[in-house]
Amino acid sequence: MEKKDAGFSVAAKLCEFAATLPGVFLPGGTDRAWVIALMLFLILAAQRAWKQCAGFAALYGILSLLLYLIRFHGIRMMVFSEFHVFLFWWMTPVFMAAWDLVSTPPGALSAFFARVHAPTGAILGMLVIFRFFPTIRAELRGLRESMHNRGLTGPGQVFRHPGNTFEYILVPMLLRCLQISDQLAVSAAARGIDTPGPRYSYYERKLRARDVLAAALYAGGILMLLLIGGTK
Q1: What is the pLDDT of residues 132-180, one digit of tens each?
Q2: CA distance linking residue 82 with residue 67, whole number of Å
Q3: Whole-model pTM?
Q4: What burial letters (b/e) apply to 198-231, b meaning 16+ CB within 10 Å?
């Protein structure tokens, strides 16, 4: 059953990410980084990922402004060096392409890699990695609310008893990690992860015309940038 949404397929996003790497890292990548970033903003806008567009636009705008002030007005950074500002500005297209890929629903990722006959262990490892940070963030949010209800998050409590505060956070998180790992193992077994034969997914999706068009236009744009750069 196909889940209809505005996002591109996993295959198109993989093509997008694979094309971004040579576009950024091959010689001359610093000169075309802003063009690649603009193309990726169009990719995100086509998927109606407005929140991601706004976040990356703010980040890229701030980095571009800092880089301009450093280059043409001689300002000096107090915390980060000029090299770090330039590095993050240069790598922003890679971050955008990678985020577009990893923000794909895990079910869609596993369904795609299962169709291309990727090893089951690799699929499970990938899903665990992709879901680790969102899960930890949700657990920390619940833990913070629980500590707040018990009066354990006040500045006085934290500064007077930093060791106890660290223990209040570490021990519940370790216990939750153990519980979540057990739940994941039971869930995978219940869903027949070890069962031989073909498996089907709610996220089964074939390539659509818009996926092929977006991947072709983006890869073609990167290729054109590389050819233009090679003729200079």
Answers
A1: 777 788 888 888 888 888 877 777 777 887 888 888 888 888 888 888 7
A2: 8
A3: 0.75
A4: eeeeebebeeeeebeebbeebbebbeebbeeeee
Q: State the pLDDT at residue 172.
A: 85
CB atoms within 10 A of CB 74: 7
Give the integer Cα–Cα distance in Å for 43 and 6: 11
Angle at which helices 106-115 and 120-149 pack, to 10 degrees? 170
Which residue in the block uniquely carries the two structure tokens 């236009």? Answer: 217
Largest CA distance in the chain: 66
Q: How many CA atoms lie within 13 A of 164 on its CB side?
A: 11
For the beta carbon of residue 7, count every other beta carbon within 10 angstroms. Answer: 21
In this predicted structure, the answer to whether residue 2 has a pLDDT above a threshold of 60 is no
The residue length of the chain stands at 232
The values of phi and psi at residue 5, to 5°, are -155, 180
Rounded distance between C-alpha atoms, residue 219 and residue 19, angstroms: 6
- C-alpha span between 1 and 12 (Å, rounded): 19
Interval 78-118: pLDDT, tens: 777 888 899 999 999 999 999 998 888 877 888 888 788 78
Spatial separation of the C-alpha atoms in residues 41 and 30, rounded to whole Å: 18
Alpha helices (runs of H) in the chain, residue ranges in sequence order: 10-25, 29-46, 50-73, 82-102, 106-115, 120-149, 155-160, 162-190, 209-231
Residue 33 backbone phi and psi in degrees, to 5: -60, -40
